[in-house]
């Protein structure tokens, strides 16, 4: 009996220790844009090739360390996942599109799933509901069933509070699209969670992205819709003129963090961060530009994000970086020939407890 009690006591202590550890841990999530197949136009834009949106203007500083890779090849997913996990990234949130009957642009995610058992990197979905969306309730239900059948059952699917996580790009667009088939955003989220519960999950952990600054009013609104958390997508225009130094973007994010620290915290805030923004390869003269981004400036932003997370005793604690590879928009941490591993080193420096091994 004494041995059994001792084992039970030890188990309880281990569980308490694990719980305490979770409370202090910060997960690092990074959005992944699956736009770099060899047959897409996007590499042509970055190269400035004829017929592209940036004809005659190349952007060589954005060339990946892997070169202008064919994202449809599994080796690309394997290298990306290896680098990310090696430098302390917890999960990729893959941009995910639904055309009403099947997913689109899911080649990178499929390749990740082929290699996921070999790397300690988790994944989840960012439902890009501003692009291709369900037009009738059956299409929405089919989409949720697809999540259940193909993703939530994966051991590497990222969860919060034991629920599989789904990021929703736009809650406003969700409401608009829901009304087209006689529903509401609130009903759609509840409907999806109910389907997940039928399969034995405790629900779905829905997170919306927004560029509105944190506030009590925003948290009340999103809580009423049924979201479990919210995060900023990219506060690129929160401060300054159309063209500014990246320093202005850093200070804008730090102001957003201060605002988040002052809310009543009715809703969990997954703290956003961004390495920059310059969408001229895609938008030309209409682009918003935050010039002169550097890894050191990014460290300043990340430290502000960590300070906000450390000050909040609640869990979960997550920082969301936009993004791994938005080369067309100038928002990327993927290793490049200009910066090497410096942006990944920045993440490891702020959120990791050990120095990353040299990338191979």
UniProtKB/TrEMBL annotation:
Secretion signal, residue range per the UniProt entry: 1-25
Keyword set includes Signal: yes
Domain of life: Bacteria
Pfam families: Glyco_tran_WbsX
Sorted UniProt keywords: Signal
Name of the protein in question: Glycosyltransferase WbsX
Organism: Geomonas silvestris
